[in-house]
Amino acid sequence: MSQELTYPNQDGDSYLLDDSPSPDGDLQSPGGFEAAEGGSHETRQWMESSEGPLEYESDPEMWSQSDDTSLTGPEESLSEHGSDRPSSAKQKFSRHEKLRMLALRRHLDNLAGQVLESEHIMQTTREELKKCRTKLEALELEKEHVREQLALNEEQGNMANVHRLRSKLTKLEKELQAEGDLEKQIEERLSEAELQLSKAELEQGKFILAEEDLEVQEERFEQERTENVMQRARKETIKVVQADRRRRNRERDHMAALRERDRKHRQAMSAARRSREAAAKYLKETVAKVRQKEAEEEERHKNHMDQRMKTLLNLRTDVSSNRENLRALQARSRYLARQEQEALDQDRAALAEAGENAEEVMLRQQRLQQFEQEKQQHEASQKERQAELLSHLLREERQMKKRQAMYPQLWPDAKRDRAKRVTRPKRKARIIREYSGSSSMEYSADIEEAAVPKLNSTKIIGADISSDDDDGFSPYGATSRDERGGSDSEDRKDELAKPEFEGLWNQQHKAYKVPKEDEGTYNLKYPSKMERDMMTVALDKHRAGIVRKQVAAGKEFKGCPFYSKPDVIHFKDFDVGKSYKKKVILTNVSYSVNFIKLVDLSEHLKDFIDLQFDPPGQMSAGMSCEMMVTFKPMINEDLDGEVKFLTQTGPFNVPVTCSTKKCDLSVDTSHVDFGTQVIGETLKKTITLTNEGAKGTQFEFIKITGMKQNTLTSAGTSLGRLTSAGMSLCPETVKEVDVTVEETKEPAGKVEPKTEGLNIPEIELTTGEGIKEPLSARSKKSGVVTITVDDTDAIGTETLTLAPVDLEDLSSWDGMRIGQVTGGDIGPFSSIKLEIIFNPMIPGAVDVDFEIRFTDPLSNTIHAKSTAVAIDVPVWVERQNVDLKICMFDRLYQDAIVVNNRATTALRIKFEVCKELRSYMELLPKTAYIQAQSQFSAQLKFLPRHSLLDEAGPCFDKETGVLEAPMTIRVAEQTAPVLYTVHAVVTNSDMEFSTNFIDFGFATIHESVIASVKLTNKSILSQKFGFVNLPDYVDVQPNDGFGTLLPLETVDLDIIFSAKKAKNYSFELTCKSGINRDFKISCKAVAVHPPLELSHSTIHFAATAMEDSSITSLSVINSHTNANEFTHPVPRIGKGEIAPVGPTAFEFVVPEGVPLAVSPAVGVVNPGKKAKVSVKFCPELSVSDIKEEAVRLITKTMEAKAKYEFEQAQLAAKKSALEGLAEEEDAKKGKKSVKRNVKSPTGKSKGSPTLQQVVPPKVEDIEVGSDEYSSGKTSLLRQFAGRFSSYSIPCYVASGQPGDPGKLPYDIHNTLYLEVHCPAVKPPLVVISDHGRTTTDFADISVGQRIIKSVSIQNVSDHALDLKSTVLDTNGPFQLLNSLRSLPVDGTHTLLVAFAPLNAKVYQEVLDIDSGSAILSVCLKGQGINPIINISLKEPKLNLGFVMAGEENAESFKLENVSPLSVDYSIKLASLSFQKHVNQQGLPLFVKRDPSADTRVVGKANLNGSSVFDCVPCEGTLQPGSKKEITVTFRPDHPSDLFSDVANIELYGKHQAHAIHLRGVAKSKIMFIIGGDEMKPSVESLSVVPVTEEEEDPKALPPAIPLLLSFRALGKEDETIAATRQLQVGCIRTMAVSQKKNGEFFFDNLNMITPKGFAVDTQRGMVEAGMTRPVVVTWTPPKGHNPNMVIEANIIMNLKGDVLERYNLLLRAQVVTEETP
Questions:
Q1: Cα–Cα distance between 967 and 970 in angstroms, integer?
Q2: 921 strand-pairing partners
């Protein structure tokens, strides 16, 4: 049902509160609220008001205590209990009504809040208006007062005050106006606030009735909620009762289940007990059997181990002997090989001298020997195969016999089949034949074994064969096994391939055998019986003649006929290498005269003993003779033998004994009895160790009783005689035992390999010096004994490590110990006293065993025993040493002293403290009674103070801080006090800083300043510390200033100061220790706010490869735009002056050697602006490292070269030695040796070659840019492992524009710092060509020339690279000819770069090769040069002169190359050019108006078309600075004056360097004349003028050839200058023999031209061949000459050479006023 509430708004409209359902859910039904609660979406309703729609939310969780929910479940569960109660008559609120009430209450609360806010605004505005009006009144009063003052001063004429008061009055008027405006604004705001308040109150008044109705509904809603709560409580009570009932039921069931489980458990326990009792009887029997089996197994294992140990010892002995035999065999093999090689060299030399091909003959012999060896091997393999086959057959036969015994039914039984036979055939004996290649071996019934001679006399064991006929039965058929074996061998022999050459396999041929050493002896035949009888008789006669009985006075002499003094020749205690002599006196003790003869010496003594004995001849009884025995020992071993003599009465021997030095060790007593001793007393007794031998040894006196289990101890310092208590090593796994003792002082030596106790084959303690050292000395040092058990048969190695603690003498428990002498050296024939000390601490009988062990392997261990009985006192302290551990000064420490009484009566005890410590240590109580057989505890108090250092006396060690306080307990009626000791280590609790004052100096607010201090713990206890109450601008690291200091530890602490603003700082840092002690550091600093700041104070570059570059940028910012320090922080130094606002300059200064570049490094930033700065990182290798690497590479190369030369020298020396031996052998044989001069590579022919010492070059000698330097750089790049560097770059800041360039007036305190982190890595690409240089220099190249160079690169990274490159300048001279490709790991690629300069200048370009992670820059540079060639001609003209037609003339000039590079030139004639016809097109010269415009330079050619001129050589190459002579030949074939040509000198065939004009004249006669005016065109006709043949009159004169000479005399006012013309008369040098060599000339009719003013200087003359002679003709105007008239005359000039020629000189003269060209 829809309900509506309508309320009017302030505009007269109404808004609707409707409870209609929303679009999101259906709320019309009574259960709509419950349905909305069950959904997951929210429902929204709106209420409209004057301010817009009112929104409220419907949240199902909001009404958590509604009547629709319950804590125990849904309402339906209680319907059965509440069905008898009547339903409530009140209607419940629906969900929609509840939401509407909530929205209305929110709206009313908002209206109330608006009213309150409007009232507050109105009150505030009224107060502001009141203050404004009050200020206006005050200003009005002040204005009136100023007006009065102004009027008064105007009247007084005080103009200064008048002006001041007028300005003040103006100011007051402005303030009044401003306050008036402000008053109006406040009034407007007040009106607006009142209006808003009225609207809010009006709006609130509209809802008065709705509010009253809402209050009623809310009261009713509260009542409804109370009823719902009570109803829910009743339901919950019912649920609780039901739940309690269910709980009791569950507990009852649980108890019943527990009782049942307990019953079953008891039954199971009783059953298990009965089973265990039944099984115990069988278990005991089983355990007894297992233990017996383990004991048997252990005994068997022990016996097995002993056997294996013996086997190992025997193996070691066999290995040593075999090693010596192998060395001897190897030496013999090397000797035989050397002899064989020498014989081979001799044979080769002999063959070479005989003129045969030694190599061919030796090769043939070698192949024959190889063939014989292969043949013998083949035969041996055949025999082995036959033997193997025979053994296989025998094995099969045994298996068949075995199977026949196991399964007899499978084989026929002879006895079983015998009854079936009717008759038995006669038995025939079988014949045994020897085995051969074609027959088989058969077995007879009587013979079971047969021998095969050819199979290494192997016996064939056959089975028992019965006597029946069928004994030879075989399941394989009728053929016996032996027949099959024979047939197989025959088949194998038939299968052998036949040789290609029968001679090599001929059985009749006997291969050469090397004769053995014993083959040179002759084998005599065994003597016959008669011969043996004859030899026996002869020997008996000989003996009978020598030895005969001696009878004197009827008494036969028996015994030794000679007495030896000494009776035994004994060389005792000898040393190897020395010589010993002994004289032996032999006395005849027989009855009469006797003879003596030295027969022999024992065989093994002949190498060491030399006998000097002169037979004395016949000796009477009692006479003596001497024999000198010289003994030279070479080995240190005992030797026994005898010297054999023969006398007339029989032989006798004198024993010889050689004994080495030995030890004879013994003790005076082996049992030491101390008797009865009271605890605490010390008694000493000694044992005397005596060495009666001549050899000294090392000994060790050790205690055996009480030694730790599994601890190895030494016997007489010999680690080979180590013993172990309870430890044994398995000989199966022990092949080699290495004992290494790590000591701190002295090295140990090699120990004699003798085993005792541990039974180890050999244990050595080896060092570099090989010194034997007793283990007793080592026992005093710190060492670790490691026993490495190595078994080659086992899988791994086993190591036993014994700590030094295990090697200590454990004698504290029985009180028996060894004195100071525990080991050492005992010399020959000396004695040492060994001390045993008995100091009992525990009562009872003591029985201790001692051992004296020796390093001498022949000396046995001496055992000693010590016994004693110790008794105790009745009162004793549980702790003899009371350890208070470590104590600090000024702190109290307590402990308890427990005293025990073992007596049966009470005793009075008194505690005493030494007088030095009575002020610091106290025992309470001081006197006490201790009951019988009980304990008493006393309290010990210890308070150490600093005065303890001075007052403690000997009880306290100031250096170590150790306190040892001897304490005494006095017992009544007991003389011996009870002593105990209180131990403590006293230390302080101080911590110390390395400095107590830190001055951070000037620090900018953009950076942090770090000061490092050291904090030291002076105590030997660890202490905790921490910095507390730190200012916000200070930080302490590490761990924020907290940590733990170990004893006497020093840690480095970084105190970081980061200023927040510019001011002066002064503060203290407090460090607290763990016991609350304070340690302070005073600090001060000055904070600086610089005028500029950096956008980034730290730059992290990416990993950059070496020789690559990385670029980044940052900004320098000038944010200082206002100097008002009250509005924002301003730049200043501390509290100094504020930096001026304006442009600010900066300068980055990169430290020297840092691979960074900043651009721009200097700049100016205006206020509010910023400047961009680029930073470039270019990692490079240091020059010193590169030079050191270069030196290392050079040294390595030099060493390799020296080693190679040394090896070559050794080879040459060996060759020379072999040749020398060959020459000596040839000389012995009588051959003439060829002189050889073999020198070693070093130039020396004598002496063995030596390895030359390499002297590496100095680092300073390596020049930067050299090949060695580049190689070292490339090597370092390849093995570069990467590095990380950090640099700090200062940026200096100065206010204003810098005045002087390069000088910045900066303040050091305003300096900014840029931190740059630069990681450098290995480059992925390196250049491997040109020693690794990255710059390819094409050097100087001629313009127009092209050169190609290669650059090889290699991938040295661990992955493939895809390469890219930059594009070179398309208009430049460089060009990359090939493309890049992907490079695999360690792959190489070659780049081809061409350089073709276009102009004469320097070119440089960079080719960047991008590998993805780095860029390799290859610098390409080169210089284009114009080639310059100079010619030796002053002008580019060459006149070949006059030549007779058909002859030639040659002239030369030189070309010089003045450029720095070689030049290719070529000389091309214009007459031979293809453009010749084109260039000659045009009007002829005589038609042109301007004759000088003629450009044709090619004249007439020869009639046959060939060129008149020729240049040799016409092409070639000129090296820099060289010259070359060019010969030009003029060879005309007809006369002409118009021969000309141009020789163009071109360089590289492209551009022209010079053009030389060639000219020449060819004449038909030897005389010629030059000069005169041109009378005909200078172009020769191509047509041939026909010559008419006319009869010549020999007497007639030849016709005259006209020649015009024009004269122009310069006429002036006062004079006339004469005109002069010159003619050249020449004579051609001709090669013709018939021609005249000289010529002459003369004039005719000179008198006819003289009147006209003409004059000739030479009228007649001679001209030498090849010379010219001038003839000058002068015209001087005659007197009375009319200047306007032209004078003409002619004269005949005769040239007489080979023929006469006549020239008619036409003279034409005139006077001119100015010169004309």
A1: 10
A2: 942
Residue 1494 CA to residue 1483 CA, distance in Å, equals 9
H or E segment to which residue 639 belongs = strand 639-647
Contact of 1365 with 1371, CB cutoff 8 Å: no
pLDDT digits (tens, 9 = 90+) for 649-693: 888 899 999 988 889 889 998 899 888 776 767 888 899 999 988
Note whether 1626 and 1568 are within 8 A (CB): yes
Separation in Å, CA 1085 to CA 19, 1027, 1134, 1226: 75, 19, 9, 101
List b or e across 1421-1457, with b for residues whose CB sees 16 or more CB atoms inside 10 angstroms. bbbbbebebebeeeeeebebebbbeebebebebebeb
Q: What is the mean pLDDT of the chain?
A: 77
b/e burial code for range 1528-1552 (CB count within 10 A of at least 16 → b): bbbbbebbbbebbbbbebbbeeeee
Q: Name, of 550-554, 772-776, 808-812, 1378-1382, the range with top average pLDDT.
A: 1378-1382
Task: Count Cβ atoms within 10 A of the Cβ of residue 1004 and give its class: 0-12 exposed, 13-18 middle, 19 or more buried.
Answer: buried
Alpha helices in 552-622 (DSSP H): none
For strands 962-971 and 978-987, give the pairing. antiparallel
Burial class (CB in 10 A: 0-12, 13-18, 19+), 303: exposed
Tens of pLDDT along 104-117? 888 889 888 988 99
Strands (E), 1592-1676: 1600-1611, 1616-1617, 1619-1627, 1639-1644, 1654-1656, 1660-1663, 1668-1675
Q: Residue 482: pLDDT above 60? A: no
Q: Which residue has the tokens 């003129």?
A: 355
Please give the backbone phi and psi of residue 558, each rounded to the nearest 5 degrees, phi first: -130, 145
Please name the helix (run of DSSP H) or strand (run of DSSP E) that holds residue 269, with its range, or none: helix 208-353
Pairing mode, strands 978-987 and 881-888? parallel
Residue with the larger pLDDT of the pair 657 and 1496 = 657
User: Inter-axis angle of helices 1183-1229 and 1267-1278, to 10 degrees?
Assistant: 110
The alpha helices in 495-557, defined as continuous H runs, are: 529-546
- Amino acid 1082 reads S
In the block, residue with structure tokens 């719902």: 228
For residue 1138, the 8-state DSSP code is B
CB-facing half-sphere around the CA of 1209: CA atoms within 13 A: 19
Instruction: Report the DSSP pairing between strands 1415-1425 and 1335-1342.
Output: parallel
Alpha helices in 612-732 (DSSP H): none
Closest CA to 816 of 989, 677, 608, 656: 677
Bond into 1513 cis (ω within 30):
yes
Quote the strand ranges of 1657-1696, DSSP E. Answer: 1660-1663, 1668-1675, 1687-1696
User: Cα separation of 761 and 315, whole Å?
Assistant: 10
Task: Say if CB 1434 and CB 1410 are below 8 A apart.
Answer: no
Instruction: Please state whether beta strands 1700-1712 and 1600-1611 pair in parallel, antiparallel, or not at all (unpaired).
Output: parallel
In the sheet that holds 1600-1611, the strands lie side by side as 1616-1617, 1600-1611, 1700-1712, 1687-1696, 1639-1644, 1660-1663
pLDDT tens string 78-101: 333 443 344 444 567 788 888 888
CA distances from 680 to 238, 870, 967, 969, 982 (A): 87, 9, 15, 15, 18
Would you say how long the chain is, in residues?
A: 1717
Q: Which residues have a Cβ under 8 Å from the Cβ of 145 and sit 6 or more positions away?
A: none
Query: How many contiguous H segments (helices) and E segments (strands) does the chain have?
Result: 14, 88
